[in-house]
Design brief:
single chain, 257 residues, alpha+beta, five-stranded mixed barrel, three-stranded antiparallel sheet, 4 helices, 11 strands
């Protein structure tokens, strides 16, 4: 069943119902996916702007009250408390300048509070052997540190079920760590930027927010939407063969009686 029939010269446009509905469905879907990627890119731009602005702002002091994760994400925080070195874990496969190493994560027990903050203190090289873990000095007594609050959930892929009973973890599973830690953890991971006498390297890159990736995906979805429209038009435009051939009316055509 044709929805309509339009004729222009020897060409006619006659779309049918079900192919048109299918094309409309996929057109709306691709446009929605393109808009979704655009929104994700804008959200990441906003976070990047907040990160850049936070580098110029004074750090927010963290007290005894729970933090609003969304409000402090990519903001500088100032902490005062005591490190808990017995609960230190090492995140494996962290490379710096081509050298394999670990990120050293230690909770800081906040002064005057029953809560703690998990702190990424920095990077340390693996050393001569993986069987012997590096010795990492931890400041004793009360310290004051400053750092950037980041998303504590890992962005890396893990295949299968991973046991995390030891000190070396392949990735940070924040929920698993919080479940085993005896104190309540604040809902952020702090990337330490202030110096402490531990020999760790604290050169943090700008956050990988993948803005360009989301924009690229949006362009691909919009391009697919445009392709669907072109294909729909091409399939439904046909030459009208019910009209007599035009070559009879052209100069040089067959002679007339």
């Amino acid at each position: 069943m044709h929805l309509m029939t339009l004729r222009v010269g020897r060409w006619q446009f006659a779309p049918t119902l079900w192919p048109t509905l299918a094309a409309l469905f996929f057109l709306l879907l691709t446009l929605w996916l393109g808009n979704w990627q655009q929104q994700k890119a804008q959200t990441q731009r906003d976070l990047q702007t907040r990160y850049d602005r936070a580098e110029q702002q004074a750090p927010i002091p963290v007290g005894q009250h729970p933090l609003d994760r969304e409000a402090v994400l990519y903001r500088k925080l100032a902490l005062r408390g005591v490190f808990d070195p017995a609960q230190t874990i090492l995140i494996d496969n962290r490379v710096h300048d081509g050298v394999a190493g670990y990120h050293v994560l230690t909770p800081l027990l906040l002064a005057g509070s029953s809560m703690a903050v998990l702190v990424n203190r920095g990077w340390v090289a693996v050393g001569a052997s993986r069987e012997q873990l590096p010795v990492i000095p931890t400041p004793s007594g009360e310290v004051r540190i400053v750092g950037m609050a980041v998303d504590p959930h890992s962005r890396y892929l893990e295949l299968g079920k991973v046991q995390r009973s030891g000190q070396v973890w392949q990735n940070l599973d924040f929920d698993a760590y919080a479940a085993r830690y005896p104190k309540t953890l604040q809902p952020v991971l702090l990337q330490q930027t202030s110096e402490t006498p531990d020999g760790l390297l604290r050169t943090w890159p700008r956050p990988d927010l993948k803005i360009d990736m989301h924009v690229s995906y949006a362009v691909q979805w919009y391009s697919l939407a445009a392709t669907l429209v072109v294909l729909w038009l091409a399939v439904n435009i046909r030459r009208d063969r019910t009209h007599p051939a035009d070559d009879e009316a052209l100069p040089g055509g067959p002679p007339q009686d």
